[in-house]
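Q: I'm building a small set of examples for a reading group on sequence design. Run inverse folding on the following structure and report the sequence directly after it, with nothing in between.
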């Protein structure tokens, strides 16, 4: 009887203690933090959020990773760089203070370049998703990316304009002081002139909302095509105003134009839009079905995606970059950012957007872009071709 009483008291004490600290040994969950450095507000907020959607979906599908023989829960630490260079530095500092092991992002080269030194000084590797300007990785051992670069993209679009659209004179327009816009204008101009064409270049001030004078200039100077590698916010205005002015010149957009907001702007209008991008819906049916279900199951996600479940290329890229980060963590066998940085150059991954591997600069080895056009009557993207630089 005495023994039973002692056992009862012991069990009761264990239950009480268990409510506070656990009775017996309880394994504490191991957590790895991955930083998500994207614009979810500002002029690039739409595209940035679509990249975040892909990252979140990938995290939902695979919320853990095995590092050095131990299972870690992956916690996404998201910050909004607000499409602004100053805010980009502030956002990067937040990720440093959170002690993330690796950073994913950003949509937009300017904010990536602005935040680069913050990550470098902290010794944290960053993997760009769709930041295409060469200066993101140039001279940096800490910044990698999974997308093609602007020299390639500009050449692809210039050759498409010359060979497929039979253009001989192009009008190029970009935001003044914007590294992404101006870089692409330069690369397009070089390739288009090499193909025998002539180019008229122009720039508009930040926060401009009236593009009528620029569009009329393209028409009045006898240009055959308009190339405007600008943000989503600007591109929708250009599409709307071109339609209002009855300017039906083909408009070429870079990867930023591959957005549902551009589709909505063009729907029902007499406009011709062609874009270069990283992925075309239908390229991986399993992924397409999964991300559509994810978007349709989340009202906020669907709204931010443009009100429907059209699969954006940057969402596919966000999905892929998450898995590239997991591969780097597994290869490193550690959560130490320095070890992850050391492992990244050797990482390869077959993603929904294609095979991903890095060259000596940390850039993805990519040789193909997708060209899509808008079916204005249906308000839908139509795949045109896969295009190489040559």
């Amino acid at each position: 009887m005495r023994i039973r009483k002692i056992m009862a008291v012991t069990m009761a004490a264990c239950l009480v203690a268990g409510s506070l600290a656990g009775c017996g040994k309880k394994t504490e969950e191991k957590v790895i933090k991955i930083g998500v450095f994207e614009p979810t507000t500002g002029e690039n907020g739409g595209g940035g959020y679509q990249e975040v959607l892909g990252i979140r979906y990938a995290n939902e599908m695979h919320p853990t990773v095995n590092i050095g023989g131990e299972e870690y829960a992956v916690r996404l630490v998201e910050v909004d760089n607000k499409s602004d260079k100053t805010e980009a530095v502030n956002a990067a500092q937040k990720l440093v203070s959170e002690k993330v092991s690796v950073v994913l992002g950003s949509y937009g080269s300017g904010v990536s370049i602005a935040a680069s030194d913050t990550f470098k000084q902290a010794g944290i590797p960053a993997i760009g998703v769709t930041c295409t300007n060469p200066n993101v990785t140039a001279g940096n051992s800490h910044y990698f990316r999974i997308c093609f670069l602007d020299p390639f993209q500009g050449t692809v679009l210039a050759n498409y304009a010359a060979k497929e659209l039979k253009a001989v004179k192009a009008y190029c327009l970009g935001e003044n002081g914007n590294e992404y816009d101006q870089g692409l204008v330069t690369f397009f101009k070089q390739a288009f002139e090499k193909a025998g064409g002539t180019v008229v270049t122009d720039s508009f001030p930040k926060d401009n909302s009236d593009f009528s004078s620029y569009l009329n200039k393209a028409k009045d100077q006898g240009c055959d095509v308009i190339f405007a590698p600008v943000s989503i916010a600007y591109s929708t205005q250009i599409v709307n105003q071109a339609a209002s002015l009855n300017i039906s010149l083909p408009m070429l957009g870079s990867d930023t134009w591959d957005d549902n907001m551009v589709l909505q702007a063009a729907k029902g209008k007499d406009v011709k839009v062609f874009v270069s991008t990283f992925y075309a819906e239908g390229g991986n049916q399993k992924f397409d079905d999964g991300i559509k279900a994810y978007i349709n199951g989340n009202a906020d996600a669907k709204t931010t995606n443009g009100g429907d479940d059209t699969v954006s290329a940057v969402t596919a890229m966000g999905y892929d970059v998450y898995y590239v980060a997991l591969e780097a963590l597994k290869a490193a066998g550690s959560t130490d950012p320095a070890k992850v940085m050391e492992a990244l150059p050797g990482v390869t991954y077959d993603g929904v957007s294609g095979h991903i591997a890095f060259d000596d600069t940390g850039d993805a080895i990519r040789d193909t872009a997708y060209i899509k056009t808008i079916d204005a009557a249906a308000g839908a993207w139509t795949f045109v071709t896969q295009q190489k630089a040559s």
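DSSP finds 13 helices and 15 strands in the chain.
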